[in-house]
Give the backbone structure.
Amino acid sequence: MTGELLLGSAEISRTVRRLAHEIIENNHGAEGLTLIGLLSRGYPLAQRLGAAIEEFESAKVPVGRLDIGPYRDDVTLRPTAPLLRPSQIPGGIDGRTVVLVDDVLFTGRSIRAALDALNDFGRPARVRLAVLVDRGHRELPIRPDFVGKNIPTGLVQHVRVRFQETDGEEGVFIVGSEAARA
Amino acid sequence: MLELEEKRLTIAADGVHAWRHKDLLDTDTLSREDIDLVMSQADAMTEIRTRPVGKVATLRGITVVTLFYEQSTRTRASFEVAAKAMGADVVNLSATGSSVEKGESLIDTVRTLEAIGADVVVMRHGKSGAPYLAARYTKSSIINGGDGRHAHPTQALLDLYTMRQHFGDLAGRRVVIVGDVMHSRVARSNIYTLLASGADVTLCGPATLVPRTLESGGEGPRCRVSTNLDEAIEGADVVMALRIQKERQEGGLIPSLRDYIAGYQVNARRLARAKPGALVMHPGPKNEGVELAPDVADGVGSVIEEQVTNGVAVRMAVLYLIATARRP
């Protein structure tokens, strides 16, 4: 991956452990938690959070994955359409505290789609949002509950998260106009 | 299923699909990648169907018309359920009893549907090739829901999907298609997808109903022809029985149903010669007690109901890909 490295492997690991602690603190333990990672890179992040929570609390937390492709608001408007993938949410979501997990929070449209998707799976008691990076530029009234790192960006820039599980390398990178960075 | 799915994800690493076909008229225009893409999207649709709310709104604003010049239960209902499960609007038109037959009237009909705003027209017609004619004269996408004795692509894709659910890769698997191959659009579309997937195919039936011209030789997967079911079924992984199409029999091709049953019904004795765990398939509707003995039709190897269930998921996938095809 070319571009400026913002978070390396060790920092990502520390950030994930901090986020896991915050989720536990907010939920007063691991009871009733279900982590749901948005495909593709929210899922490995959710798995890592699940493993950390299990380590800290000695309790197993269900980790699911969610494909928001069918719920995007631009599927029939764009020249290309998403490749759809099966979602999987172990144990269902009725009455659970669902933590949606994604790598980068940007416009908020993915999260809007994810909230729509959850409606089709059941009725959670509450829904929280955890992200590794918040890069700003929201287009919808959506805010994260747990943030790994706030990274102010220019609209022309891109934040790229790479995980070993999905990409064979590890790091958070910023690509595009270097000057625009705050 | 999961391992296959991960492999299929490599088809489009950038997270978008690469489907480019405006129409689906037969399977023979599909590349191996196209077929894999339909299978992977059908996996996603199968999962959607298992949710408490088994439908999504992905194709909202898309209008799907089913235009059937021939009677149908499962294909039409399956397409309607599939389109609604994807959030599309569905209009059902029947030509039964109307004077519309072919040629200009068909062209007028599809042009009218295009003007009304049909994005996709699912069409069944008694004349082979009719959907090809329609597709030439309209910007609406045409999906062939069966044309005469020529092709039935979504049936072949759902059959393939059902086999892949059980076997994963079909390379080296043996599929026996038994019955009235000559009049069967199901057989024709299946032969292509099965050979493309690496399976060996044996067509079996009375010589009058199984044309030798369908035989293929050379390297790789082959299509053979046999008139002896006891021999053909030996070691088969899949036995697919075709419906005896009374409406397409010109007479004299089989001496009598009794003779057909004696020579070509799939019964327990014959099925015992297939591989243990062999699948029994039938595209429906069955002639009770003709193509399949009742104990075989309802037996452990029978996946006939799975075929019907999978049909919805596969048609959701096809509708999704057609409606979101990459524009040039």
Notes: Residues 118 and 266 of chain B are 42 Å apart (CA to CA). The domain at 153-304 of chain B is CATH 3.40.50.1370 (Rossmann fold). The longest helix of chain B spans residues 304-323.
